[in-house]
Design goal:
The chain is mainly alpha-helical. It is 83% helix and 0% strand. The termini are far apart.
Length: 90
């Protein structure tokens, strides 16, 4: 699993997702459907990253991995709060 998790594709996925979120926020047109899917994928990304970081930190025993996992949980919770405050699909 280390080869997959340390692959640049995971980082690129985060960069593309973050870039799309910034691009969506900067546009004048606000599509609720696009916002929903970007935030849903962002939640999934942060949940995946936090779980992987905690598992890897518990196996390897490095404290900085546990700290990174905690920060990713904070990002996950922040994304959930943004979802709660955003316009909903009807």
């Amino acid at each position: 699993m280390a080869g997959f998790l340390n692959d640049d594709a995971i980082g690129m996925l985060g960069l593309v997702l973050g870039g799309n979120l910034i691009f969506w926020a900067a546009r004048d047109k606000d599509s609720v459907k696009t916002n929903f899917w970007l935030l849903a994928f962002s939640c999934a990304f942060w949940a995946f990253e936090a779980c992987v970081e905690f598992i890897q930190g518990s196996v390897v025993g490095e404290p900085h991995m546990i700290t990174a996992g905690a920060l990713e949980v904070i990002m996950f919770i922040f994304t959930l709060s943004v979802i709660g405050k955003s316009k909903k699909l009807r």
